[in-house]
Amino acid sequence: MSRRHVVTLMIGLLAALILVMGSLPLTAQDSAFATNTPAGAPLQSTAASSFFATNTPPPPAPLGPDATIDRYALRRWDEAAMVEVLIGQVGKLRPDDLSGAKGIQLLQAELARRFPGAPTNPALRERLLRAMLAAPRGSVDLRPVVRPFIEAALNRQRPSFELPSALSELGFEVMITPANLDNVGGLDAVLMTRYPAGAAGSGLIYEDYTLAVIDAQGVYRMPDTAPSFPAIPFDGREVLTLSYLGDLNGDGLAELAVGTARPGDPNAELAIFGWRGGTAASLVAPGQMVFWLDRIAWQPEAGSFTATEVRAESADWGCRARREVTWTWSFNFFRPPTQGADFIPENSLACSLALAESGTPFFAMPVSMAMQTLQQALPLAGDADGYARQRAQMMLAMLHVFNGQAADALDQVEALRREAEPGSWLEGQVRAFQEAAARPDITPLKMCAALEAADPNGACDVNAALGRVFTEQPLRQGEPLEAQTARLGLTIIDRLTITVVGRLPREAVRFDLGEQSWWAFAPIGKESYTAEPIETPPGYEPRDVPTLRVSVPPAAYLTFFAGDFQATLALLDNAARANPGVPLDSSLRFLRALTTDLLGDRTNARNAYYELWRDDPGSPWGQLAGEHLERR
Hints:
Blueprint: H1 3-23, H2 28-31, H3 47-53, E1 72-74, H4 79-92, H5 98-114, H6 122-134, H7 143-157, E2 165-169, E3 172-179, E4 188-195, E5 206-214, E6 220-221, E7 231-232, E8 239-246, E9 255-261, E10 268-276, E11 279-282, E12 290-292, E13 296-299, E14 304-314, E15 319-330, E16 333-335, E17 344-345, H8 349-356, H9 367-377, H10 386-402, H11 406-417, H12 425-437, H13 444-454, H14 462-472, H15 481-487, E18 492-498, E19 506-511, E20 518-522, E21 530-533, H16 554-561, H17 565-577, H18 586-598, H19 602-615, H20 620-627, E22 629-631
Antiparallel strand pairs: 1-22, 2-3, 3-4, 4-5, 5-6, 5-7, 8-9, 9-10, 10-11, 10-12, 13-14, 14-15, 15-16, 15-17, 18-19, 19-20, 20-21
């Protein structure tokens, strides 16, 4: 081959290689920087980066300290270093990692305490925002990062607040509604921010309502308030509603009322915000919460509103009670009445049946009486009584079993099977009943236990049924307990004698009806035993119970996020003292170390961080503790 042909071939190969390289996607690192992101491009990872992530080898197991404590000191933080740690922790978060998510919340609070307004560097803020948007949905609090990001966009794009409008910024959409918040200069605005633009349902990653003003210098401001403007999805909240925008108290200024709801909660929560003293403020009296069910009656001319709220009266039946609460504007806040109205049970089948067994549970009644009560109540079921009706019908089937009418019970359960939704309470009860009915050794009490084991609110009550059995057929003192209970279809699998000063010795037994089926028989009468259910005796607890650890009292998180570190430390110390000899959970140890650190006790903070990192390096708490130390 001639030299010319070789050169020509090499040029062709080089050109082909350039074409191939030009067709390759950008790497994950390329897509992570704002400088490489086209204006208006959404903040989300590319398909290429998510594909290659599945082929990345898992990181090595976390390591604890590699030297003694005297070789470590508390880390000397700067804003950028702490934000980098936060980005790293967010990147490690996986779905349902509750410890990791709580640790990130604490780290965010620490960042805000040490460096208010951080991250102040726009590029660093955008990197953190990208990491948070890529985290499992609803797992991190995006508000402290999104709101400064949107405020910066407002100052860059400078939209008018005089007319409704919208702006977009890197995948976020901001809907602007004019409002007179401060009665100064031109109009202000209520902002609805959403990401991604146009998203809804499970595709929604962020949504909130906030207040915004343009100050005398022309600067757009979006100050936060305490409690903060709510956002979804976060903290279990999935629904956000603009409930009212306008003058609620007759002062000529607009107020913003937004509601949030968690799936399964009977009530939504209402927050009311206004512009007071040159900044945003919550207008609900401190320490109070506005709960509402399905409607709020607004009376702005009277400076008040009335909310209907409910509470659960019976978890078994789903009975609810409701009341109306009128909140009135007084001394700069909306306040509830000093004496609240009583809750009144709803007129429903659920509440009727809950009331019917408030004195005596159905399975403790004579079988015929219980069946008659349920049969008379069922025709009263309304459209909202589906669960109560199904539960009553399952209980009737179980009562048929106790009454010796097995065929009627099976027919009723089969009819219920046809209407049971997959995964529902009814579907689980029907399956438990039919599986138990197929066992050759089944007895009414064992079938009852199967329904109770399938769900805590199962359609049977083992102890109530046992109480009725021992009342109708009391065990006699002159014959062994094992022989008498065997005739009732009961097998004793544990037995001991309980001796207490001042009381007659009692025979305690556990039947083959579940871990909690312990009963005591006392020879109080002349012929028969007096029977009563008892707690599991010491030493007979289930073998698979995990080791008890002292966890963080919920109130300690509240005081920490409120900035009351002395109260937080007191709550943690009290929890430890109340459980002598019980190991402390790593979450409590980290919160105590962090609180001690923020209170300025550097020596004890260093020791606590080091010991936690050494003892539990594989947990999010151990990793965070290690981040707070540096090698000398």
